Protein 1
Amino acid sequence: MKVTLFVTCLVDLFHTNVGKATVELLERLGCEIEFPEAQTCCGQPAYNSGYVKEAKEAMKHMIRTFEHAEYIVTPSGSCATMFKEYPHIFKGDPEWEPRAKALADKTYELTQFIVDVLKIENVGAKLKGRATYHTSCHMTRLLGVKDAPMKLLKNVDGLEFVPLPNSHNCCGFGGTFSVKMGPISEQMVDEKIHHIEEVNADYLIGADCGCLMNIGGRIERQGKPIKVMHIAEVLNSR
Amino acid sequence: MPMKIGTGEFKERVDKGIHNSFMRGAVAGAQERLRTRRLEAAEELGNWEEWRALGEEIRKHTLENLDYYLWQLSENVAKRGGHVFFAQTAEEANEYIRDVVVKKNAKKIVKSKSMVTEEINLNPVLEAAGCEVIETDLGEYILQIDDHDPPSHIVAPALHKNKEQIRDVFKAKLNYKKTENPEELALHARHTLRQAYLTADVGITGCNFAIAESGSITLVTNEGNADLVTALPKTQITVMGMERIVPTFEEMEVLVSLLTRSAVGQKLTSYITVLTGPRDQGDVDGPEEFHLVIVDNGRSNILGTEFQSVLQCIRCAACVNVCPVYRHIGGHSYGSIYSGPIGAVLSPLLGGYDDYKELPYASTLCAACTEACPVKIPLHELLHKHRQVIVEREGKAPISEKLAMKAFGLGAASSALYKLGSKLAPSAMNPFTVNNRISNGPGPLKAWTEIREFPAPGKERFRDWFHNRQKGDHQS
Amino acid sequence: MTTGTIHHRDKFLQTIAKKLGRNQRTTGVTRPHWKHQPQWSVFKGFSQDDLIEAFKSQCSRIHTDVVETTADQLAAALKQVVAGYGGGPVVTWDDPRFVEYGLSPLLQEEWPSEKIDVHVWNAAIGQKNIEFAEKANVGITFSDITLAESGTVVLFSSSGKGRTVSFLPQTYVAIVPKSTFVPRMTQAAVFIHERIEKGEPIPSCINFITGPSNSADIEMNLVVGVHGPIKATYIIVKDR
């Protein structure tokens, strides 16, 4: 199966290991990976800040870059959600609305793709330790992907899974919110870390690099012994 | 009090909220409890999404035909002998109510909980006319006797106060001699307020839902205070935001079912009271005279705009009870009697961006509010629309941000620029990088690194790795 | 009845119409057939007995006692409940059902002979009724419609059926005939709506009462009995 990878800007620049793990994992599951080099960013930073005009330029570029694909897969619930929002954003635009819709229809978040399209729930991964999972807001509420990561994590050999208390609460990332509303964001992420510690997890796993950068960056600042991993890295552990 | 509450800049208010550990504990506890109860109530129905869809459809239809239903309502109120006053502004509403009160020569007024009378700042007007005004909702009463402390939650107004504080206020203001036990406090309030109901000249209420087909108003409480406010004084004045209306009893029933479940997880609250006109001939209790004041006060400016759906709100506070931002900063930080997500959407619309420009940004757009709303207001989308308006129409965004976003637009829309920029990033960040981490970043990174580490951009981007790997594949 | 007045309506409604981008509407709007109507699926197909069971289980969640009895045992049951609440004074509606259900001897002879004051609402004496109600220990009414889902009694006011009988006394007792049970508020709303459609007047006050008065305004602690009754009992009459 041919998969076109939308790796996201955060992974491209800062979390390359997540991208590598995604490629290796999907290849192992029988996919052929294509990476369009023209890809940039889904436009979310500008869009969420209210700069819709600027964001639309980025979006059009992404539509052009990805519209040839059969399946678009991305290791980010939030960026997948953004692609899914495109038709709504271009609503009423005779040229771009249909193109946006076609793009949205073939976009999948990584775990959603593995479970719903590849129909695989056990990827043969192994990781020893106690782990909890952060349900990122856009992925669960807007994209509606709730079960796929759980199904996959349940089948990771050696991994003891513990639910995260108050998992429904946002970690405090929110893109520019994390810097515009720093003091509030700090309280939110501290509460999140408090709950992670409460369940004595060795690993915090997530499916969005934005949230993980926030939680992980704070954990690191505080020097806490919790390892933060993207789900692609977990599923690629052997 | 008016809609705008508190003093100081948004940042100062937030700082105060964050450092109020009692309030934060109370809010977190209340959120857990109310959220759980709401989810259980929805679960018990089993088809909650259908209920939400119905609630949304009713609210949308009503707003689309608001002039018709208000016309029908006013006709039916008048037919039953009630008086209707349409008030375009807060001043018009206050003036009319004051005139009624003065004409009745009223000295004592009892009130049941009403956000709209807070919004129009009614109480000081009545007090200036020489009346004693007594709030009878227990939470509102506590705030009132504590020198008009503002409400911090639209359903549980005194959520930010602990029982020791309440005991001290009762001691100072009511000659209370007992302990901080809530039952003792409530009993004391019961005795004091009972006398107020029995001796008041005028009762003032808000309105959860007016019913157009019959000219009725619906009041929803657990305490029963609205019933005594409307049963005992000779004159009743009900104040409603113009959007708080439904076509018939059948829709009222659906929205009440959504309201009580969403607000407190109850199937119905203890008292749902539907009042039509003044008392019937031969009745002993109930008012002799009934006035309905329908308030616009900026609401019509929301109609026909991209924000119209905010008027679907039934004031259940489900969005407040799930908001992770409200959770940490509390209601007073919003600087408005309307707090939480609904407050962050509504306050700038009713009060303007000058006072409330920060509120749309006090959200991670996590959509917990949208998910919780029983009438499907897309709250997080409306917060986003505010941001768009602030940037595009109001021009209130900071210049540095504008430039950055302009650059983003150019960079992300051009693969060449993006590639170049991302290639240069590691060397640009080099001076700030220690062990692949940035702990004290420049520019916009500063705010990030005040709280957290930032990963240094890798020397090899993912695209470089992929490119090299493909090349390797081809060579082998 | 004198018709009331309406002030400042035209400009107000015209503004709304203008903002909605059309001319003002005073006729020609019909309610749509709502696409979803989940309210009808609650307790669908339940018998009266099923509804009573659901009602009883709900009452355990709303701090309300339930007593089941039959018409011929009602007086005894009511007497026991009132005794349990510490006796009189008692205030009741002036409602023909008190006679129909054989409660006259209790109200007129038994209780007075036991020095329990009984006041039956009497519109002719006006304000005095409220003074009685305010001093009463127990207020007693019938339920006009009873909602199984929420444990609610619906009371229609009239000159004999004072509003404050259910609010002012320390405790409240509702007599609930089996025949008054419906699944939920939906059926009560339809009943009232149909009366309006037929042009019949509706009572000036319709109360949906669900257990005693309560508040959670102090630290979210539930306090039962704030402004209204502190305790409540429903007496179900199973054969009427």
Protein 2
Amino acid sequence: MKEQKRKKAKLFNLKMFPLDIAKILCTPTLLFFRIKKIYTSDTAKKKLRGGMLIAANHTCIMDPLILCACFWYRRIFYLTAEAVMDRKKLRGFLLKKLGCVRINRDICDIESIRSATDVVKNGHVLALFPQGGIKEDNIESIKSGIILLAMQSRVPIVPCYIHNKSGFGDRNCVVIGDPIDIFENGTFPAMKEINNLAQTVMEKMTECKAIYEESKEKRK
Amino acid sequence: MITIEILKELFETIFGQELNLDGISESSDLRKDIGMNSISFLYMAMVMEEKYGIKFNNDDFEKIATVKDVMETVESKVQSR
């Protein structure tokens, strides 16, 4: 696996027209979401440049929109379950136009992994919910597929924690962690190492959650 | 040519203790006998693609059930490259 320079996405791209229009039309939602961003360090504060993977928890259907509003300066693609995209034809069509990459979770979907890798290699940001669907607030386990994707596309993973507002006075909050570079020494790591890396990503996501809880306590 | 020894060595390198590789033979079932799941299938495919310069598609995985199937699929893909 050779080291390669990370590509930046083109600013103007006709294929991205529906996504860009949707982003412009959805700008007022920034006010609705009133997203509070918390960074775990100064490194995390830097704007995302080039291809990258975002690993976030998924507790609500609004999470993709929150991430989209949080990283408003980037086009964000999402790895979306085939079951979600195929439930309604029109929804599947729109989601595809809005940058969703379908994946069948029940099979070894190498073609989707290849499509997702191409997206990231072309300099875009791909967001994943590695818990594998909408789960409770506790981050207990994540799937190792995200590590394989990062290895294949040779990009870092940005761990995030999303807090959805629960009441009138509450605000949506995204805690953004330091990018994690996946270790690569030119050979194929053992599966155990991949599982350990997945564990590290999960721990970083949990750390982001702890930072949110801490800031919540301070505000009280 | 891909042999059982080559495949076994590759499996030991990438899966190590994670899977049950004792007594692996051509007729071993990848899921039942070795204990592979979709992630390990994916990783195996990625490694094979990089190593042999081939490309798998989703249909290939529907046909692959045993070690022999892996060897035959890789072999046919290498030949038709």
